[in-house]
Amino acid sequence: MFDIKKIVVPTDFSITSYSAFEYAKDLAEKMNSEVHIINVLEKSPPLLPSKNHGLSEKEIFSGREIEARKQLAEAASFFMEDSSIIVKEVLLTGNDYEEIVNYAKAIDSDIIIIATRGRTGILHTLLGSVAEKVIRFAKCPVLVISPKDDE
User: Fold this and answer.
1) Most CB within 10 Å of its CB: which of 16, 80, 98, 125?
2) Higher per-residue pLDDT: 40 or 124
3) Average pLDDT for residues 13-22, to the nearest whole number?
4) pTM of the predicted model, to two decimals?
5) Do the beta carbons of residue 48 and residue 57 sit within 8 Å?
6) Cβ–Cβ under 8 Å, residues 29 and 151
7) Cα–Cα distance between 141 and 110 in angstroms, integer?
């Protein structure tokens, strides 16, 4: 049997990304594992809001960071309800898949559980898939959760 002690669960706070939480929580409870919830902020967003209300890029990034930390705390509460799971909230900055893979390697993660939107065709070609890149470069097993029909 596998000994899974560290689970990495990336999230972009979308409903789709939360579909991986159920699997991670169940596995963490059964294996007495700790869960590392990761969100990655881009260093510089592709488009700054047109109505930035006179805020600098640094102030906008700071606001995004504060909001992401709030959302990470909310996501962590899912794992802590009626459970003794140890949850670590991790906010990183950089290229999403690279940061996920590097973090998992740095903590010697046993598995990454990631959700995918299941894009196909031109959207997949243009945007790529974070899950696909994580699978390609991760040094540990990756469990990919596809969205349910109602998501």
Assistant:
1) 16
2) 40
3) 89
4) 0.85
5) yes
6) no
7) 7
User: What is the total count of domains within the chain?
Assistant: 1
Residue 37 in contact with residue 91, Cβ under 8 Å? no
Q: Check pLDDT > 90 for residue 68.
A: yes
- Tokens at 19, concatenated: 């579909």
Asked if residue 88 lies in contact with residue 37, where contact means CB atoms within 8 angstroms, the answer is yes
- 30: domain CATH number is 3.40.50.620
Residue 30 lies in a domain: yes
Burial (0-12, 13-18, 19+ Cβ within 10 Å), 9: buried
d(CA 3, CA 34): 12
Here the tokens at position 90 are 């991790």
* pLDDT interval class at 61 (50, 70, 90): confident
Q: Is residue 27 part of a domain?
A: yes
pLDDT of residue 124: 45
* Full domain range(s) for residue 23: 6-145
